[in-house]
Amino acid sequence: MKKRKQKYDIEEKELVKDNEPLISIIIPVYNVEKYIDRCLDSILNQSYKNLEIILIDDGSPDNCGKICDKYAIKDKRIKVIHKTNGGLSDARNKGIEVATGQYIGFVDSDDWIHKDMYKNLYNSITTYKADISCCKIIRVSDNNVSIPKKYDSSISVYTKDNYMKKFFKIKTQECVYYATNKLYRKNILANNQYPVGLTAEDVLGTYKALIKCQKIVEINYPYYYYYYNPESLTSSSFSAKAFDTLEIWDRVVDITRSSNQEYIDWALLNRNRINYTLLMQMALSLSFNEIENKYKLKKDKMLKELKKNYKELLKCSIPISRKITIVLIVINYKFFVFMCNFVKGVN
User: Fold this and answer.
1) How far apart are CA 152 and CA 204, in angstroms?
2) How far is CA 76 from CA 30, 67, 71, 309, in A?
3) What angle separates helix 244-259 from helix 201-210, to the nearest 10 degrees?
4) What residue ranges define each of the domains in the chain, with the CATH number in brackets?
5) What are the two backbone dihedrals, phi and then psi, of residue 236, each rounded to the nearest 5 degrees?
6) What sign has the CA pseudo-torsion 222, 118, 37, 56?
7) What is the rounded CA–CA span in Å between residue 39 and residue 51?
8) What is the pLDDT of residues 166-223, one digit of tens each?
9) Nearest CA to 78 among 55, 47, 111, 108?
């Protein structure tokens, strides 16, 4: 018994370095029993060891709750919270509320991460005295990860103003909304960081964090593996939840008006961009007539707003094909829908 205890003490000393501050990693868990082992194993195998791993079982109907409890027995760094279902934002907010780390990160339970992700995010956030450090995300449909040559591990340092240009897609089409590829200083996150009951929650949660920042650092390498199932994706589906993005961007505009007036034009531009995006999604749906009848008032309002402001979108650095579709929608949306249906029929 004495030898075993002595060995355990040595392993513990090797496990956590004295100078490593605690990082809290929040993982909302819901209906992912097929994928959660892969996710948790990638976190337990991080080269950065001083972790507080917070699993939020969001009332999952499958065996996720039991799997979380088993992992907690295996590793004392894991804390499990079982709660009634409240959605992704509610689970993340709960994790922020109970987190005790100096830094916070988020991982979605069907994704997984490179073993050095948090070590490199921590090194970059401290080296450059930043408020947020982030890495690239790569979309994967299986366990095989192939990294394109365009990634080189170079580091870019941004002021808040410069990073806001990326957030609002000014002269870029890169999406930087994601919550999960970042490491945050805890003091820039609030217990109600993410909007409960709405999709596209990353947009608002990330914006609320960015407005509290002075410096953001980004590693040009994809340490975060975003899993998507090709069989579950369809470009023709449309539901009422799609309109959540309107509410999300309305809130971004409201926050900007009240506290960040210098970004108001960019916020309004992106709010108008959502009108175009949703009108496109409706047009590409297999059941447009049904959707139009159901959401006619919303559709008419979005189309009116787009017609009023579309010239500002045409000035943006968006692909020429997208500019053409904007013009076609503004000129005659019904004809544009007809052409979409015709093309789908040909294919």
Assistant:
1) 29
2) 22, 15, 9, 55
3) 10
4) 8-231 (3.90.550.10), 234-346 (no CATH)
5) -105, 0
6) negative
7) 15
8) 999 998 889 999 999 999 999 999 999 999 999 999 999 999 999 999 999 999 999 9
9) 55
| Residue 58 clears pLDDT 60, i.e. is over it | yes
Percentage of the residues of the chain whose pLDDT score is greater than 70: 92
Strand (E) or helix (H) holding 9:
helix 2-15
Residue 159: strand pairing partners: 215
- CA distance linking residue 107 with residue 114, whole number of Å: 12
Nearest-angstrom CA–CA distance, 286 and 341: 8
Beta strands at 51-58 and 78-83: parallel, antiparallel or unpaired: parallel
pLDDT level of residue 230 (50, 70, 90 thresholds)? confident
Token pair 């409890």 in the structure block, residue: 69
Contact 140, 112 (CB under 8 A): no
The length of the chain, given as a count of residues: 347
- Euclidean distance between CA atoms 246 and 305, whole angstroms: 12
Token pair for 8 = 């355990």
The Cα-based distances of 222 to 104, 112, 126, 167, 182 in angstroms read 19, 11, 20, 18, 11
Residue 172, φ and ψ in degrees, nearest 5: -160, 155
CB 82 within 8 A of CB 64: no
Mean pLDDT of 81-105: 98
* pLDDT confidence band for 2 (50 / 70 / 90): very low
**From the CA atom positions of the chain, what is the Rg in Å?**
22
Quote the pLDDT of residue 169.
94
- Give yes or no for a contact between 277 and 310, defined as CB atoms under 8 angstroms apart: no
DSSP per-residue letters across 264-278: HHHHHHHHHHHHHHH
